[in-house]
Amino acid sequence: MNQHGTTTHGMAPPYRPEPHRPTHPPLTMPDHLFAQLATGGHSAEALAFLERGERARRLLLLRTLLDRLDALSTPLTPPARAWAVVTEAAGVAPEAVERLLLAPGTGSWLGHVLRRSHGTSSGPPMWAEAGHLCALAVVAAVHAGTTADLLVPLMDGALHLPALGRLRVPGVAPHPTVGRARVSGGEVTVTVPGAPGVPAVRCRPVTVPAGSPEVAAGAGPHWLPLRTLALPASAGGGTVLLDDLDPYRDLDEPVPAERLDDEEAAAWQRLFEEALVLLGARSGDGPDAGRGPDTGYGPGRLVPAAVRVVVPWGRTTSTPPPPPFVRTSATSGDAYGAMVVSRPATAVALAETLVHEFQHSKLAALLHLFELLDDDRAECHYAPWRPDPRHLTGLLHGAYAFTAVTGFWRDRLADDSGSPTAAYHFALRRLQTRVVVRTLLGSGRLTAPGRRLVSGLAATLDGWLREPVDAAALARARTAAALHRTEWRLRNLDGPGARPRLRAGALSWADTRTHAFAEPPAAPRTADEYLAAGDPAGAVVRYADMLARTPDDPATLAGWIVARAALHPGRGDARRALARPELLTAATEG
After folding, report:
1. Which H or E run contains 439?
2. pTM metric for this prediction
3. pLDDT confidence band for 23 (50 / 70 / 90)
4. How far apart are CA 157 and CA 152, in angstroms?
5. Is 67 helix (H, G, I), strand (E, B) or coil?
6. Of 346, 265, 351, 268, which Cα lies nearest the Cα of 307?
7. Cα distance between residue 453 and residue 442, in whole Å
8. What is the pLDDT of the chain when averaged over all its residues?
9. Which residues contact 237 (CB under 8 A, 6 or more apart)?
10. Where does residue 76 fall: left (phi above 0), alpha (psi -120 to 50 degrees), or beta otherwise?
């Protein structure tokens, strides 16, 4: 095993129920694949290797969970019997069952239930959560066309069938209840033992395209299907799940279903198509120009089929209108290829977020294979895209994600060299991300592969920092970066003493300037707009008037400090205030 190998083991397919299955030789990542990922980009071969690693990890977790569930008291079909149903289905349809077991939602469920077994998470009764394995067995039998008869958990009056949808059972209480699911020929029938007043419900579970009627032909009136987003033929076709139903679609604890209305689902399909068209202009054109034939896709580019699930968040209706940018997005290391996203108004914002969140999936998969850093978990580091101090793992995730975001905006700038927005975001993100890379390289806590990874990001960013950018956009980017850093220090650090200290109980705050500075204001009115327009003198006057009314406002004080430093770049007091603004606060308070 070379220095970029991994001790994660492959193993026999998971559908053999014996508790002690033979393992395969350790996975060892070839150097050239690690080098591709270290640029912030990837290749199809590199992604395939990461997926192999995720498969090995998923099967190890499944084996661990099955061992732990042996002693669990449950009113449902015992785990070993449910696993035997999976085994039988896998013998008929191995690819379909493997997709089910390696699906993002299955990974989220596995991680959550294992955390519950350690007492670090909470949720419904353990028997009901562990019984999700029975629901997986039902779906496996549906895919394979085999027969099965299982006692399954009914949650919120329904049986959730992973990656398919929910079968609603009228008359069942919302608390966890035992149901009986019979599967035959791809059809599912659910009854409730001991409840003769509850009728049997039947369906042939299928998903439906977003924008089409919810009830597919022959599915049955009680079936609520998951919707799918269509991938264009240019991206190889296929679909991505738009998951608003799976209880394990969030980052940790189970959440209730939040059904999108038809108009909102159709809006997702339209926006998704537009985002993929935007990405497809460069995502499918082969290796990054100038980087050699074996590099694959450069940072900021995306293979659409790598996205498995999009979880819409925070909106179940098309009104009120969404903001132009993504308010919320997140990814879980347990759910490779899935991302939680609040729908924005623009395809550019969604495309940027798809790139951003998939980077987190890639890095999470790398962290499952390699120990990249020795993190003491101290939340004390500055991240230019966050309001709060971060630990080193958070910094590494941010650096990896925003290297790709920088590449995304570089591609947009290449598509439209006159775009002030693309020039601004490219200039801002390359500067901010390089600051974080410098912090990581100077931390002394990177392992050998971690240093190689971060050094690769540094090389990518250093090359981009040498590329020319419109002077006005560059000035706004530098100003926005200085504003965020200054306000972060004012809100998070105490000034007195030779070294700054983190302030206890610092509150979260909204960064409104990063997006506001993207476009130059035509007719500035506010202090921020004067600063964005390149008029620090006009900004200083207006910030001073605001400070006279609200002297303790960190956002206003940050603006005044940055504007004053721009107005008097040679003055020592202005430079010192910009370097350590928290000292100015201390002096003012004193």
Report:
1. helix 420-441
2. 0.92
3. low
4. 12
5. helix
6. 351
7. 14
8. 90
9. 230, 231
10. beta
b/e code 429-445 from CB counts within 10 Å (16+ = b): bbbbbbebbebbeebee
Closest CA to 577 of 486, 499, 484, 506: 486
H/E stretch holding 167: strand 165-168
Is 336:361 a contact under the CB 8 Å cutoff?
Answer: yes
Rounded distance between C-alpha atoms, residue 207 and residue 390, angstroms:
40
Helix and strand numbers (H, E) in the chain are: 19, 17
48, two tokens: 């395939």
Judge whether residue 210 has pLDDT over 70.
Answer: yes
* SS3 assignment, position 22: coil
Residue 35: CB partners within 8 Å, gap ≥ 6?
456
User: In this structure, what token pair is assigned to residue 160?
Assistant: 């959730």
Pairwise CA distance, residues 303 & 337, whole Å? 11
Cα–Cα distance, 83 to 78 (Å, whole number)? 9
pLDDT, tens digit, for every residue of 163-203?
Answer: 999 999 999 989 999 999 999 999 999 999 988 888 999 99
Q: With CA atoms as reference, report the closest residue to 309 among 368, 352, 245, 262.
A: 245
Residue 498: phi and psi, rounded to 5, are -70, -30
User: Which residues have C-beta within 8 Å of that of residue 127, sequence separation ≥ 6?
Assistant: 72, 73, 74, 75, 76, 153, 176
Of 330, 320, 360, nearest in space to 255 by CA: 330
Provide mean pLDDT across the span 16-43.
Answer: 78
Residue length of the chain: 590
SS (H, E, C) 528-579: HHHHHCCCHHHHHHHHHHHHHHCCCCHHHHHHHHHHHHHHCCCCHHHHHHHH
Whole-Å CA distances, 98 to 104, 113, 144: 12, 20, 11
Q: Do 208 and 190 touch, CB atoms closer than 8 A?
A: no
Confidence bin at 290 (pLDDT 50/70/90): very low
What's the CA gap between 463 and 430, in Å, rounded? 10
Residue 96 pLDDT > 80, yes or no?
Answer: yes
Q: How far apart are CA 6 and CA 10, in angstroms?
A: 11
Look at 67-71, 440-444, 530-534 and tell me which has the smallest mean pLDDT.
67-71
Q: Which residue pairs from 152-157 have beta carbons closer than 8 angstroms and sit at least 24 positions apart in sequence?
A: 152/76, 152/77, 152/178, 152/179, 152/180, 152/181, 152/190, 153/76, 153/127, 153/128, 153/129, 153/177, 153/178, 153/179, 154/178, 154/179, 154/190, 154/192, 155/124, 155/128, 155/247, 156/256, 156/257
Cα–Cα–Cα angle for 58, 62, 65, rounded to 5 degrees: 135
493-494 and 501-502 strand pairing: antiparallel
At 468-497, the pLDDT tens digits run 999 999 999 999 999 999 999 999 998 776
pLDDT at 19 over 70: no
CA distance 464 to 40: 13
| Closest to 343 measured CA to CA, from 408, 226, 279, 260 | 260
Q: Is 82 helix (H, G, I), strand (E, B) or coil?
A: helix
**Band of residue 29 on the pLDDT scale cut at 50, 70, 90:** very high
**Which pLDDT band, with edges at 50, 70 and 90, does 74 fall under?**
very high
